[in-house]
Amino acid sequence: FLIHFYFLLSTNPIIHGLAQIFILFLVYSKNPTSLLSVTWDSLIFLFFLALSGIFWLMMTLNETTEREFNIPVQLTGVPRNAVITGELTDTVHITVRDKGFTLVTYAYGGKIHPLTFRFANYADEETGTGQIPMADVQKQVASQLYGSTKLLSIKPAKFDFFFTYGSSKRV
């Protein structure tokens, strides 16, 4: 009774709800001194507890939220005699907005693949520089997203690389 009274006064709804579940479990089990006693009533209670947890998860995942994802970037087709001399961005950070179910498929469903760009399409051999336009990055990212997903931002905003032709040596 003292535990129940303490948690009734609590302003945190999570603690309040957990306290009510704990009290209900103690009331409806045939042996309140042993939490490990398996009775028919406690099994029914645990079934409905799991059912309510599933409903809560479905309601939560049905809300529209924002999430950031990291997508690897690969520069393919680099000639053997070309040496990348500057830092090459290896990850794109995107922020998207959609329902939770869709964001879960992006996070755990293997829907998002690395972005690949061909060296020959973006390299300027005369100046030894290359630039991947933001429009090409957006196009590749958008092709991997569902139609309901809104792409909010892509970072970094600039994709430049520097190279030179000649022999290379690993140190």
Judged by helices, strands and strand pairing, the structural class is: alpha+beta
Write down the secondary-structure element order.
HHHEEEHEHEEHEE
- Write down the overall geometry: elongated
Largest sheet: 4 strands, mixed
Q: Total number of β-strand segments?
A: 8
CA radius of gyration is 27 Å
The share of residues in extended strands comes to 25-35%
Q: How many helical stretches?
A: 6
Determine the N-to-C terminus distance. 71 Å
Question: Low-confidence segments, ≥5 residues, pLDDT <50?
Answer: 1-8
Q: Order of strands in the sheet with the most strands?
A: 4-1-3-7
- Name the helicity range: 40-55%
Assembly state here? single chain
**Average pLDDT level:** 81
Written description of the protein model:
It contains six helices and eight strands; from the N terminus they run H-H-H-E-E-E-H-E-H-E-E-H-E-E. With 171 residues, it is of the alpha+beta class. A hairpin with a 4-residue loop joins strand 5 (123-124) and strand 6 (129-132).
Summarize the structure.
The protein is α+β, with helices and mostly antiparallel strands and 171 residues long. 40% of the residues lie in helices and 28% in strands.
Question: What features would you highlight for this structure?
Answer:
single chain, 171 residues, alpha+beta, four-stranded mixed sheet, four-stranded antiparallel sheet, 8 strands
What secondary-structure arrangement, pairings included, does this model have?
Blueprint lengths: L1 H7 L4 H16 L11 H22 L2 E13 L5 E3 L6 E9 H9 L6 E4 H4 E2 L4 E4 L1 H11 L5 E6 L3 E7 L6
Parallel strand pairs: 1-4
Antiparallel strand pairs: 1-3, 2-8, 3-7, 5-6, 6-8
Helix pairs in contact: 1-2
